[in-house]
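pinned: reference chain
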Amino acid sequence: MSKDIQLSDSDGDVLVKTARKAVTEFLSNGNRMKLEPDLEKKFSFNSGVFVTLNSPEGLRGCIGFPMPDKKLSRAIVDGAIAAATEDPRFSPVTMKELDNIVFEVTVLTPPVEIDVSDPMEYLSKIKVGRDGLIIRHSFSSGLLLPQVPVEYGWNVEEFLQHTCEKAGLARDTWKNESVKIEKFEGIIFKEETPNGTIVREET
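pinned: its structure tokens
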């Protein structure tokens, strides 16, 4: 894990609870909550973050910010609300669903471009379970979090293919030398059950 970001288990607990509270407040009264001053200060560093919502049927929403463009204290709230209400793949989450949804927060290290002279080198420079990927080509881009290939049992090549598909590109576009591929790591915290104990996912 990058030395840039150090988060304790108690930090993760606060982040996941903040994500749930942000969604609950927004759905109940339309308010976009602000963190208490001590937490605002604690999470005042810029960081990418994704919030993932899972229901018993599977993924229920996942939105975030890959680049460290805003303070984590703000990004965690914006990402949680967006995951619940703005993911174009799903209808907005309702209040009555919240007790069945597991909240997961992934704090990202800054993306770093993978330097290769031959695209086949990507296969040895990416580690499933540790790395997330961003693929950029022309005006398209796609991102998959580090936990995704683990959940689906993909190898590195399959991970690259699916990241291409996420960008709306052909599966083998990663072999094109004009493609830019970046990797990042994620610190993952999630509820074991809805509203339950929050654990750090080991990658």
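why pinned: DSSP finds six helices and eight strands in the chain. Residues 9-109+186-201 form a domain with the Glycoprotein, Type 4 Pilin fold (CATH 3.30.700.20).
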